[in-house]
Amino acid sequence: MKKGVSKFLITHANWALNKLDLETQREFLRAGAFIEYVSVSCTSPTFYEQTPAELASWIKELSGDRLILTSDLGQLSGAPHPEGLRMLLASLLGEGVPYEQLERMVRVNPAQLLGLT
């Protein structure tokens, strides 16, 4: 805040190269950051690095607040963006993540981060 930064996004928090443990994610959330999870890590045959069950447990643990879910798809080996995101959303619903949390992650939180609401 001292330098004028009022919004911060931790991206690819569930991707293998920088996969953050839950305590680190909690620290970022306490500091006011948003955390982005990418569906490519759970849906792409090439970049499959996390099960939907593990991601669901993270979302439930962190309550979905200040979390954002995006696709990061587009590679030839994966599904198109909308389909890959739909696949992961269906899997997360199947793992018991409430619809309201997922809606917050794909619609409400991104709009808030961008200053649209």
**Largest beta sheet, briefly?**
3 strands, parallel
CATH topology: TIM Barrel
End-to-end Cα distance, whole Å, is 21 Å
Strand content: 5-15%
Helix content bin:
40-55%
Mean pLDDT: 84
Level-2 CATH architecture: Alpha-Beta Barrel
Structure classification: mainly alpha
Question: So how many helices?
Answer: 5
- Pick out the low-confidence regions: none
Number of strands: 3
The ordered H/E elements are EHEHHEHH
The domain tally reads 1
From the spread of the alpha carbons, the general shape counts as globular
User: What is the spatial order of strands in the main beta sheet?
Assistant: 1-2-3
> How large is the radius of gyration?
14 Å
The CATH class, by name, is Alpha Beta
Can you summarize this structure?
With 117 residues, the protein is mainly alpha-helical. The chain is 45% helix and 9% strand.
Blueprint of the fold:
Layout lengths: L8 E2 L11 H9 L3 E5 L1 H4 L8 H11 L4 E4 L10 H14 L4 H15 L4
Parallel strand pairs: 1-2, 2-3
